[in-house]
Design a protein that fits this description.
Radius of gyration: 16 Å
Bound molecules: cobalt (II) ion
CATH superfamily: Peptide deformylase
Number of helices: 3
CATH class: Alpha Beta
Distance between the termini: 22 Å
CATH topology: Peptide Deformylase
CATH architecture: Alpha-Beta Complex
Largest sheet: 5 strands, antiparallel
Strand content: 25-35%
Oligomer: single chain
Number of strands: 5
Strand order of the largest sheet: 1-2-3-4-5
Order of helices and strands: HEEEEEHH
Structural class: alpha+beta
Helix content: 25-40%
Amino acid sequence: MEIITYPNKLLKQISKPVDKFDKELHKLLDEMYEIMVKNNGVGLAAIQVGIPIRALLIDIGDEDGNQSKNTLLEVINPEFLEWNGTQKDTEGCLSVPDYYDEVERYANVKVRYFDRNAKEHIVDASGLLSVAFQHETDHLDGHLFIERLDYIKRKKFEKEWKKKLKQKK
Ligand code: CO
């Protein structure tokens, strides 16, 4: 299992709702967790490892930023029920490695989702958790945070990214 990076077209796919909360899903979530931790991520959507289903992980850690299974959220079929306010925060993405920029998001969101056992959860999120829910759910709809940059920043990003891809070859 590998993390797919921009501009791979797979990242544009719209992921399908999960209907089976079975062993296969659990195995995928476990594997996603390993790869997220290994890459120092705070979130990972299934499509980022090439699986187009509405499943994602968020682990923003505890107050000291320490991540563990206790702070991990396994989020299946998320749906926003409420959203309000705006906030600007620096974001990054494992599919756009080593690039960070400020993105405007809703400040507060209320999200309904299911865990790996199909148990329903409703959470009110603000701050980093709110950003993480919005960033990761964007992945399920085929969107990356760089699409939310303004025109000039996006142009600059594309130029730098092309240069970087060339250097890799
Ligand atoms: Co991302």
